[in-house]
Amino acid sequence: MARTTRAAKTAKETKRLWLTYPKKVIQQPAIYELGHRFKVVTNIRQASVTEEVGIVSLELLGARDEIKKAIKWLEGLGIKVEPVEINVIEG
What's 39's domain CATH number? Predict the structure, then answer.
């Protein structure tokens, strides 16, 4: 198994995610807390929130390890996290 270099662990990357909030956590400031708990920059790209569900397109910028920790934390709150699929149609 190849070793991960320190530079690879700290290199900045961007992840685009869909977050689906269940009713019980819609009122929590999860994205605000995320930016304070982890060394990531958050950028809300799109959001739709009702009393029943919240759907947010979130961009995270940071080291791969920090992004993974942040995603795990969100999932621990009960928020479903999925990657944004980008469809490219070549012409």
Answer: 3.30.70.260
Taking the alpha carbons of 13, 36, 82, 58 in that order, is the dihedral positive or negative?
Answer: negative
Cβ partners under 8 Å of residue 17, min gap 6:
57, 58, 59, 60, 71, 81, 82, 83, 84
**Is residue 88 one of the residues assigned to a domain?**
no
Alpha carbon distance 69, 18 (integer Å): 16
Q: What is the pTM of this model?
A: 0.81
Comparison of pLDDT for 11 and 29, the residue scoring more: 29
Number of domains in the chain: 1
